[in-house]
Amino acid sequence: MRGALAVSWSRGSDNLGQPILQDDDVILLYCDDQLGGTPGEIHEKIFLDAATVAQAKATSRKHYGGQDTNSHGHDMWHFPSFPLERHDACQFHLYKMLSRNRITLLAKSNMLHIQNGNSQPTAIHLAFTNRVDEMVVQFKTGKINGTPMIKYGTEKDALTLHANGSSSTYTAKDMCQDPAKKEEPGKFQPPGLLHVVKMTHLEPNTTYYYQVGVNHERVNVTTWSEIHSFLSPPEIRADAEPHSFLVYADQGSPSDGWGQGGAWIAAMATREANLPTPIRSVHHFGDISYARGAAHIWDEWLNMVSPFAVKVPLMVSIGNHEYDHTDGGGAGKDPSGVPTKDGYKPRWGNFGTDSGGECGVPTARHFFMPHSSGSNGVFWYSYNFANVHTIAISSEHDMSLGSKQYRWLEEDLKSVDRSLLPWIVLELHRPFYESEVDPIDSVVGMEMLHRIEHLLKTYQVDLVLAGHLHSYERSCAGLYKGKCNVGGPTHIIVGTAGAKLMYDPKVPSIHWTKKIVRGHFGYGRVTVANATSMHFEFVRAGANDDPAAGTVLDDVWIVKGQGEGMVRSG
């Protein structure tokens, strides 16, 4: 099992009373085969992780608000979740820097033995498929030769249903650019095995319990996860019971250096998933972990969101920090299928190297999204839940007339049976409409609008959700070609899930903007009341002891046939 770990040390003093340990001295982490058979076999240059004393303390400050020493005066290196990856044995070594190329060993920690560290399922998360009687479970382990399995059923002590799944992984060679391609600490690290198992023939709106694990072929032993539960999807019908789901973008984790915003969002989503009337899913539309080539961030982020993702489906889509690259794609390497080496690069765009060379590979491999004819994995897809049809598209890919994404989107919109699915919600990372002063992002939004805004009106899309800007913004209802109440959707930006927030109060006054909130982390809560009324709330996030956490900072009713609808701003 993973948990918080603190590695502490004392600086000590020499005969002159000067501290032996300096900020540029180094702590190295060795795990499994890096440890060797005897101390003499350890190669100082082959290790899992490393930090100078100064870097270790800085990491602690990111997680613990500046507390980098304990009451005994020892310096500390904090790990919110350890082991970082899938290992059975690890040890820390403390080295004195004698010169740029010379080090000497000062101390070793005790050997850390992690029970089932290689075989224990981690990063468990659910996802919808294109069928309402199915649910997908994904999880990770170390490299085990075996079959991923699931046991499930409607009674916790009688998991009588079984299914087998498949496994995959990826290597540094699958990445497009540096730093993601570099096999060294702080950059590429093996992700272990990524497993996917599907549960089928589920009864509607029923609580199911499940366990996942991998049956080890050599010893015929399975290390099972804890038993988790979820509520299966309801039947598709216009008069479905009211239900809620959470929406946001731009999260990351505390290791990104932005504070605790992402962790607060995950904790509040976990609470909402465990309410007597729980949320039914969480939608994250891009800029997910902000790993940007630092592979261990994916592990940290997945462990952070797993407490709610084991219970409600986590539906993700692509952002610039997952996909954008300038080299290394093509020749089948780009998981979205773009044949050029640099992905999508229109002359009017600002699509650069924001993924740190990942080019969508970790995202596409970690998340199994619903499949239909013409869909493209995590890049563009759709699914139905109750009386809502949700569409996820990629702002990082071509959506011009004749493109694969455009053709799929138009056919998908045409196919929606509005007598059963009165609501259509479209999600993408970059917003169509926004009040940011930066002209480049504004141009990107306008160019996307030029390509597909007519589809949003023609097929009566009700709500468009986006992120990218680290703030909250809501448009008027019925927005089309810059005019309100003319049959277009409501546009809402929720880029407030943990990444560094925008605080600039100088926001231009634009007639179609109804509400802007800056300087607060938060998420959207969508409640579908019935076939004609939908309620959106922007909820402020914060620590457990923050009395303002949970405050609704803005809300709006979207009511079909009433134009602006019933609006109440917080």
TrEMBL record:
Main location per the UniProt record: secreted
Keyword field contains Ribonucleoprotein: no
Residue ranges occupied by any Purple acid phosphatase N-terminal domain in the UniProt entry: 121-230
Pfam family, one: Pur_ac_phosph_N
Start and end residues of each Purple acid phosphatase C-terminal domain: 488-554
Keyword Transit peptide: no
Cellular compartments per GO CC: extracellular region
A GO molecular function held by the record: acid phosphatase activity
Record's catalysed reaction(s): a phosphate monoester + H2O = an alcohol + phosphate
Domain of life: Eukaryota
Region Disordered: start-end pairs: 323-349
Calcineurin-like phosphoesterase domain segment(s): 286-472
Subcellular location: Secreted
Entry EC no(s): 3.1.3.2
Keywords: Glycoprotein, Hydrolase, Secreted, Signal
InterPro entries: Calcineurin-like_PHP, Metallo-depent_PP-like, MPP_PAP, PAPs_C, PAPs_N, Purple_acid_Pase-like_N
Broad enzyme group: hydrolase
Family in the record: Belongs to the metallophosphoesterase superfamily. Purple acid phosphatase family.
Assembly and binders: Homodimer.
UniProt name for this protein: Purple acid phosphatase
Source organism of the structure: Seminavis robusta
